[in-house]
Amino acid sequence: MRSNLMRAVKNRGSKSTEWVLRSALCRAGLRGWQMHVESLPGTPDFVFTEHRVTIFVDGCFWHGCGRCYRRPITNRSYWDNKLEMNRARDRRVDRLLRRRGWRVIHIWQHELTRGNEERLLKRIEQALASSARN
Ligand SMILES: [Zn+2]
How many angstroms does the Cα of residue 87 sit away from the middle of ligand 1? Predict the structure, then answer.
C-alpha cells in the first residue's frame, strides 16, 4: 500500500522534485518567480515574469529522458503512445512560449540533486541575465 503510493508520487515527477528547485532558488536569494502559472501555455512550474523566463521540471519517465527512461514491459503500445503525446505537447508548449518571447528552460528530474544545484542555478541565472539585456 505504502510503496504503491510512494511510487505513484515519484512517477509524477513533480512535487518533491519541484520542491528541491524551489528551495534552491530561495537559498540562492533569487526572487521574482511564481510557481504553476496557469495563464501560460503548459502551466510552467516556475516563471520569472519580469525576465520572461519559464522553467519546467520534467519527470524522467513521463517526458522520456534519454538517460533514465525505461520502456515498460507491459502495455507497450499504450506507454509508447502516451510518451509520444507528452513529447508532442512539450514541443508545442515550447513553441508557443518562445513565440511569445519567453525563454524556456527544461530541467530533468534526475538533474535535481543537491550536488548539481550550483550548475542548475548558474543555468537559470544566465537565462535571467541574458534576457535582462534584451
Ligand atoms: Zn533522467
Answer: 14
66-78 pLDDT, tens digit per residue, is: 999 999 999 999 9
| Pairing of the two strands 46-48 and 53-58 | antiparallel
Mean pLDDT of 28-40: 95
Cα(94) to centroid(ligand 1), Å: 19
User: What value does the mean pLDDT of the chain take?
Assistant: 88
Answer yes or no: is pLDDT of 57 > 50.
yes
Tell me which long-range contacts 87-90 makes (C-beta under 8 A, separation of at least 24). Answer: 87/63, 89/42, 90/42, 90/56, 90/58, 90/63
Q: Could you write out the three-class secondary structure of 40-86? A: CCCCCCEEECCCCEEEEEECCCCCCCCCCCCCCCCCHHHHHHHHHHH
pTM of the model: 0.85
